Amino acid sequence: MPYYRSVGEVPRKRHTQFRQPDGTLYTEELMGQEGFSADSSLLYHRYPPTAIIAAEEFTPPGHTRLPNHPLKPRHLRTHKLDGAGADPVLGRRHLLANDDVRIGYALADRPSPLYRNATGDECLYVEAGTLRLESSFGALDLVAGDYAVIPTSTVHRLVPTGDTPVRLLTIEATGHIGPPKRYLSARGQFLEHSPYCERDVRGPDAPLLVDGTDVEVLVRHRARTATGTAWTRHVYAHHPFDVVGWDGHQYPWAFSIHDFEPITGRLHQPPPVHQTFAGPNFVICSFVPRKVDYHPDAIPVPYHHHNVDSDEMLFYTGGNYEARRGSGIEQGSISLHPSGFTHGPQPGAAERSIGVDFFDELAVMVDTFRPLDLCDAAVECEDPGYAWTWNRRP
């Protein structure tokens, strides 16, 4: 995370004596990236965070991966996956995946178990509903339009808080997710050309202390398996939410898509101006309501394009999608336009857009630099006619 936070009680100097009211030492824990050479935070626990009393294999809900073959653009209707209630971790339906990132969807009406993803950062996008992200660092309240970035190995749980289920787009990386480097100074400050800044970012602002013994935590971790990962159920002697204070640059944080300030121009701006986050071999972009091209001869909708190095996934989450009229795109739709396929506006969209000065649309895009496979839930909710919507044949 690009700036320092201090929450709760911490000693004046790191790695020095810090005692509890009964005189015993608090236990210091350093959570850091890249072997002590990158961002980190120091947490002060009431009990040792190493004290487990049991560990056993755990089998999560499974999914399959199939190549996008024959190569086609795809349209997934995520709301077709609605069914019985589930939790936001084990209830995720995996849609698209490669060796860098896994994209899923969850409709959740109950709290998740305590969970630690030790394989990479996660980015959640709230399509609808409200929930609370509880972690060893504190709590964050999330509403529709919020992104939440959860650092690798953070023990957390997700708790829906509203009267209706929460809808989540889930993006699970095999590395770290953060603001693009071009938005940041050498010392990590957001630069003037960045479409958001520190004032838009929210982090935990108070400790979250929970008592408990023999507490289960599910851990997804790296392993020499067919998928490269495995799950373990740890039982901790004391609840992991026992941190009285912490400071540093690594912690869960939230940012609202509604605080993203769009970059516009006289002629159509390419997708990199919408970039919001960067991950290992993928980027996340935000398309928000905005003034569009103001050259007198401008064509506001995108031109047909072929990104020869990447697959493009777009999650439609609000407003109107002028460029896609007639394709079947709707709230909750996901389009996948793979490398090897030229894509762009539907027939007639370019002509209709001339003279339009504002687009009211909201969407989250993930561009990957390795092909995305289809998971079984994608096959379940696919619109099979989408690939043929650009031709005018009856």
* General form: globular
Query: How many E-type strands?
Result: 28
Could you spell the SSE succession in H and E letters?
Answer: EEEEEEEEEEEEEEEEEEEEEEEEEHEEEH
Order of adjacent strands in the largest pleated sheet: 5-28-7-8-15-10-13-20-16
Low-confidence stretches: none
Terminal CA distance: 52 Å
The main sheet comes to: 9 strands, antiparallel
Q: Helical content, roughly? A: under 10%
Mean pLDDT rating: 94
Tell me the fraction of residues in β-strands, as a range: 35-45%
Number of helices: 2
Rg calc? 22 Å
Provide a descriptive summary of the structure in words:
With 394 residues, this protein is an all-beta fold. It is 3% helix and 39% strand. The chain is built from two helices and 28 strands. It has helices spanning 349-353, 376-380; strands at 5-8, 27-32, 40-45, 52-58, 65-66, 74-77, 93-97, 101-108, 115-117, 122-128, 131-135, 138-142, 146-150, 156-160, 166-173, 201-202, 213-222, 229-238, 243-248, 253-256, 275-279, 282-287, 290-291, 311-319, 333-337, 358-359, 361-368, 373-375. The strands form six sheets. It has a nine-stranded antiparallel beta sheet. It starts with a strand and ends in a 14-residue tail after the last helix. The model has no long low-confidence stretch (mean pLDDT 94).
